[in-house]
Amino acid sequence: MSVALAAQAPATFEIKSAHLPLVALLLKSADLGRLSTELQQRFGDMPDFFDNDPLVIDLSPLQAAEPGAAIDFPALLALLRPYRLHPLGVRGGDAAQMAAAALAGLVVADDAVVQRAQAATPPAAAVAATPVEAPVVVAPPTPAPGALVVDRPLRSGQQVYARGRDLVVMAMVNPGAEVIADGHIHVYAPLRGKAIAGARGNGEARIFALAMDPELISIAGIYRTSDTPLPAAVQGKPAQVRLLSGPEGDKLVIDPIAP
Predict the structure, then answer these.
(1) Within the chain, which residue ranges are assigned CATH 2.160.20.70?
(2) In this prediction, what percent of the chain has a pLDDT beyond 90?
(3) Which is higher by pLDDT, 139 or 66?
(4) CATH assignment of 23-108?
(5) Cβ neighbours of residue 241 under 8 Å, at least 6 residues apart?
(6) Septum formation inhibitor MinC N-terminal domain spans which residues (predicted)?
(7) pLDDT single digits (tens) 214-223
(8) Would the pLDDT of 106 be above 90?
């Protein structure tokens, strides 16, 4: 026989579970000078890239690269805040690192799940590029539907960022121009500037162009510059770029698109 008991609820508040989308910084080095330089290179010309996003600092990559490294957390937090990032928690560190993080006001967030790029099987005609290490900033949400469409050519110095969605460019992206999207990038013309897809860590994003001749291509923080020429099979031709994850790490793969 069940028994109903009288109870009271607070009149001024309630406590509920909540889920907060976080950006994750996968820290690979305790060298904050180098981190500052690479953050400036990556985001210095994009002051609105982050929008006061809450951040979790993931120390897991650091354990393999620099085991037991001491981290100046107050300096690290001061370094991140000008980019409109708000560090809230830390995960993946050893006991000393987690204690230092707690002293800096960060909470333990070992249950935070960081989105990783999904592995895919490359086609026989795929051309693999040499991976280049870069700071990776990963966000859980996938880009929302509804692409940003640009009808005009982009000149040197111009930049277009499709926040939270795909980007479609109907005209040429000239050298010195930059196109950025949290999702896919489609260029229905020559791509001769910089193209950064999956800018917030979406490893499923791709770059498509009718004439692939970029200064730089990047997906989820893995990039390749024109210092390494593209193979003849894709240089100046219709092609797509995707991110391939495997045992040896992430790398960019360029596939020709058949006419």
Answers:
(1) 127-256
(2) 46
(3) 66
(4) 3.30.70.260
(5) 195, 197, 206, 207, 208, 212, 217, 219, 252, 253, 254, 255
(6) 13-87
(7) 999 999 888 8
(8) yes
